[in-house]
Structure formats: structure tokens, C-alpha cells
Specification:
About 55% of the residues lie in helices and about 0% in strands. It is built from four helices and no strands.
Length: about 70
Amino acid sequence: MLCLVGNGLSNTEIAERPVLSEATVKTHVKRLMAKLRPSSRAQAVVVAYESGLVVPARRGSATPPA
């Protein structure tokens, strides 16, 4: 879930990827935020990058993360 949040996806976009409802995604994101205690969703993205779960895309790469 952190990888998907780290890639900047909204709850709706996350729900479209794995076979999860948006309500389930919201629950997972809420629990993730409670555990990590970031100040914002953007800070959770920073955590994803700093932990190595998300790697910055190369310039010119139009391929979205899996």
C-alpha cells in the first residue's frame, strides 16, 4: 500500500489496481498513516522514497509503476 501511495496514486486509483474496494483502500491507507504518523499524505510519499520502496522514475519514462 505504501508503494502505491508513494507513487502518488489516489485511493480511487489504488482501488482500481488490486482487486480492492475503495472503502478497503481507505481503511488500509488510514492504518498506514496511523502507524507511520506522517504529517500528511505527501510525507508518506517521502517515507516511501526514503525507505527505497519507491524509486524515482527516469525522465522521459512514460511507463507507470506496476
